[in-house]
Amino acid sequence: MSKQHKGFTLLELMIVIAIVGILGSIVFPSYQESIRESKRSEAIAELQKLLAAQERYFLDNRKYASKLTALGFSTDTWATDYYSVEAGACQDGSGSNMDFELCVELTATGTGSQTKDGKIIMNTIGRSVHIDTDDNETQL
b/e per residue, 24-58, with b = 16+ CB within 10 A? Predict the structure, then answer.
C-alpha cells in the first residue's frame, strides 16, 4: 500500500501567492483612489461650511473676510486632517485679483496622504473645481 500525503506542494503554494500578488497589484491602487475621493468629499463639505460662514460675514459687513481669523478661527490657515485651507481673493478672467468686497476664494491643498489629490477651489461666485497634481481641472 502506498501512503498518500496530504497538503500543498511548493509549486501550488507559489502559484497561489503569484495570483494573490497580481490581484493585489490591481486592487490596491483602486482602493487608494477611493479613499482619496472620500477624503475629498469631506473636504468639500468643510469648504461649503466655510463659504456659508463667509456669506454670514458678508451680510454683517458688506464684504467678505480676507482672513479666516475674521470668521473666528485662531489662524488664517485652517487645517483638517488631510487638507490645508486658505482664503484669498478671487481671480477674474484675466488672472487679476478681485476685491474682497466682491468675492472670496477658498483653496484646500492636500496634505499627508492626500498630497497626490491636488487642490480643491471654491469661491462665492460659483467656481467649484478640483485641480489634480497634473493641473487637470474638473468641475465639482
Answer: eeeeeeeeeeeebeebbeebbebbeebbebbeebb
CB atoms within 10 A of CB 84: 16
Q: Is 18 helix (H, G, I), strand (E, B) or coil?
A: helix
Residue 74: CATH number of its domain: 3.30.700.10
1 lies in some domain: no
Those residues of the chain that have pLDDT short of 70 are: 1-3, 92-97, 99-100
Phi, psi of 14 (to 5 degrees): -65, -35
The string of pLDDT tens digits covering residues 51-73 is 998 999 999 988 888 788 888 88
Contact 51, 79 (CB under 8 A): no
Q: Convert the pLDDT of each residue in 14-29 to its tens digit.
A: 999 999 999 999 999 8
Nearest-angstrom CA–CA distance, 113 and 91: 29
Produce one character per residue of 92-102: b if its CB has 16 or more CB atoms within 10 Å, e if not. eeeeeeeebee
pTM for the model: 0.75
